[in-house]
Design goal:
This is TonB-dependent receptor. With about 70 residues, the protein is an alpha+beta fold. It contains one helix and four strands. It has one domain. A hairpin with a 2-residue loop joins strand 2 and strand 3.
Amino acid sequence: MAIVSGKTKNGFTYEGDYRHASSDRVTWTATYRLSGHFYGMRHGRINELTGASVAEVDDAVKDDIESTWTQPT
């Protein structure tokens, strides 16, 4: 399991973790806060990561966490 954290473009901070579900897939879970107050949780999956470095996987997870929270459904 790996830990990631960051701040979304709309000002929410997040803390998340991800783990490899298979050789080319990770699943992640994140908790979102604003000014220290809990606002929600989301989870997701990223496929087709074969050959990606650890840094590339971290970046992909952070991007997915950001877009899941900020993009309209």
